[in-house]
Amino acid sequence: MNPLERAGFLFSGVPTPWQNAAIFFREFNFYTDMIAILSKSAEALYSPCKLCHRLCAVNRAGGESGYCGESAELRIACAGLHRGEEPLLIGGHAGTGGSGAIFVSGCNLGCVFCQNRQITGHGGGRALGRAAATDEFVRICAALKERGAANINIVTGSHAIPALAAGIRAVRAAGIDLPVLWNSSAYEDPCALEMLRGLVDIFLPDLKTLDRSLSARLFNAPDYPEAAAAAITKMLGMVNDAAGVPPEAGRVMVRHLVLPGELESTRTVLRWFAGNCAGALLSLMFQYTPLPRGKAAYTRAGEASPPARFISEAEYHTVIGWLGELGIEEGFAQELTAPDNEWLPDFSCPNPFPRGIYTPVWSWLNYTP
Ligand code: SF4
After folding, report:
1. Which of 55, 68, 73, 193 to mutate to test the pocket of ligand 1 (most atoms within 8 A of CB)?
2. Confidence (pTM)
3. Cα distances (angstroms) measured from residue 218 to each of 112, 113, 259, 298
4. pLDDT band at 356; cut points 50, 70, 90
5. Is residue 47 assigned to a domain?
6. Would residue 54 count as lying in a domain?
7. Ligand 1 centre from 16 Cα, in Å?
């Protein structure tokens, strides 16, 4: 595979010479950066922090925080059995089932339509959460296993990879043998992802858009398309076997949330997925829920308006029709249900989600079930 394919650029046609040059330097930096990252301690990686594409260069070990809003201390908002994930992920262990979701506080992306804005820190004020050192992280995973979790599902941990890599190693050393899921926005630097090699069983990256103007407007990241394509390509490479064959189906599941009125963005994402993600599953989500007035998260770029309505039935059928057209045969698609606010969690409560889809096991509120 040539570097352009690896960086995920070929979907958009023939790159200009400038794009080629930029990609060459990125490839060169990738290896030197990776050696530098893998030889550093976790503390050193946070200071100056260049773990993700925001490149804030702040001293997180010294208590500073960058765009993600978090210092070097790992903070967690809540953990519990989540039955709202794809069927493949929720299992049925111990008669309850559910993915063992651990919601990490903070976020390096900050979408204006984020439903988890209370715990990302992009809704105003500090993200809800409580510090969880490695031994506490192990206790949380043990409690999830005891309650019947099918896996450990780490949600939005891209800005805390060093702490979480240490946590996963400790979990394995403690004999907790559940599969580990990495559930992220795909805005990680590939060098940082390398720290997770051998520690993650299933990657669940979002591919939000490949439209630069949309990613700039909705989450202040014009470089998101290239970054996400490179991160997903890296994840696919990390789960390939030694012979370089496509990964076992389901070890990478690319999620895409369809945005009302932005179907061209979805079509581009689907086309790229069909051409670049052999062996991965697609999960199409139609749960977009407009936030109540005054509740929109913000981006550091300033005001931006998220779509103010639900997905229409016509949009739903249009997108489903594209799957056959593009030859995408394996994956999941949410059913279109009547518009309501069921998908809006409230993390100020011990159980942020409707009782049917989530059983709390640990919370920043010191909740003990
Ligand atoms: S992880 Fe956080 S502090 Fe570090 S570069 Fe990314 S947003 Fe900035």
Report:
1. 68
2. 0.86
3. 6, 8, 11, 9
4. confident
5. yes
6. yes
7. 30
